[in-house]
Write a structure and sequence with these properties.
It holds the Pfam family PS_pyruv_trans. Keywords: Transferase. By secondary structure, the chain is an alpha/beta fold. It has eleven helices and ten strands. Strands 2-1-3-4-5 form a five-stranded parallel β-sheet, with helices on one face. Strands 7-6-8-9-10 form a five-stranded parallel β-sheet, sandwiched between helices. The chain is elongated, with a radius of gyration of 28 Å.
């Protein structure tokens, strides 16, 4: 008699799918039934190192086929023959499925605990999963800034900083300070929206000056990364503020940045961020007087540079195209809108 062994399959294309998969795995572990996992679409096998491709499995070694989570349609056996054809002999069990067609016309399962069908509806099984909480880190990046020419390393920064955050086990929330909303790849449209999101984060990693100062203003620790070779305005601002977790990208290894992020996730650094913000406000105490004094400044047109000769419309059109290309092409390649200045 073949020992009982299960094959677990499904779409496994969302976090909810995977949570329900974990529910089935937990219960099979409890009863001591071994199993293997393979998704419907074999290109998803790489999503988890424990998953295996169906063609690497010997169907004769399996007695049960669990089809887990998501919709189930009548054409699935024909669409996924490497699952439903090769393992046809197994006891087939449906778990947490939405049965698209009426059960009278489509129910190939020997046992079915559906999520919903024309006979019943149950709560989704992800309600039973206790997913451990991880830190939530905002990532706020500059794209291209022509003013810095070949000194800028924004593409390198985007790649490295995402890897750094993932190495700490934190979740990433994309932030963007660009306006208007149509040019903000995170869909943020006002300062109030940005700060309301920022204030709820555990930390921020950013290459933006305003990503740095707005995080600190909200009392959120920040890993400020200057993506300009040799350092520029981000470095100058953090030095002035006395914020310690500030780094120049081309001078700092990833391990150092990861260590900085881990420190920023501690309660002590959250208090340090509040203290830093209070110090910044103290430094700006004389701003009102300085601003009012500017209103009495006398105009001196001789200080202005001479205006260049007015160009004809073909030259103006060409210049506008060059500006559009400089702003839009790199950002489209990165899947984002054009950049705005900090």
């Amino acid at each position: 008699m073949t020992p009982r062994r299960a094959l677990l399959t499904g779409h496994f294309s969302t976090v909810g799918d995977v949570e329900v998969l974990h529910q089935v795995q937990t219960r099979l572990d409890a009863v001591g039934m071994p199993y293997a996992v393979t998704p419907f679409s074999q290109h998803r096998v790489k999503s988890d190192p424990s998953w295996v491709p169906a063609d690497a499995l010997d169907p004769s070694e399996f007695t049960h086929l669990f089809v887990i989570c998501g919709p189930y349609a009548p054409d699935y056996p024909a669409e996924y023959p490497w699952i439903f054809g090769r393992f046809r002999h197994c006891t087939q069990i449906g778990v947490n499925l939405t049965m698209v067609a009426p059960l009278e016309s489509c129910n190939p399962f020997d046992a079915l605990i559906e999520r919903d069908s024309d006979r019943s509806v149950r709560p989704d099984l992800s309600f039973l999963t206790d997913a451990p909480r991880v830190p939530v880190v905002g990532l706020c990046l500059v794209q291209s800034q022509r003013e810095y020419g070949n000194r800028q390393q924004h593409d390198v920064a985007a790649r490295r900083l995402r890897d750094v955050i993932r190495s700490t086990g934190a979740a990433i929330v994309e932030l963007d300070t660009a306006l208007p909303r149509s040019m903000n790849h995170a869909g943020i449209g006002t300062p109030e929206e940005f700060e309301s999101i920022c204030a709820r984060l555990d930390a921020v990693v950013t290459t933006r000056l305003h990503g740095t100062v707005l995080a600190l203003k909200c009392g959120v620790p920040v890993v400020a990364v200057d993506a300009i070779r040799g350092g520029d305005k981000v470095t100058r601002q953090t030095r002035l503020l006395g914020w310690p977790e500030s780094y120049v990208l081309d001078e700092t290894p990833d391990e150092t940045l990861a260590g900085a992020l881990r420190r920023c996730l501690t309660p002590q650094m959250r208090q340090s961020a509040r203290t830093c913000a209070a110090g910044a406000r103290d430094m700006l105490a004389d701003y009102d007087a300085a601003f009012l004094a500017t209103l009495d400044a006398a105009a001196d047109p001789s200080r202005r540079p001479p205006m260049p000769p007015r160009r004809g419309w073909p030259s103006r059109l060409a210049a506008r195209y060059r500006r559009w290309k400089r702003r839009w092409i790199p950002s489209r390649r990165a899947g984002m809108g054009p950049d705005a200045h900090s």
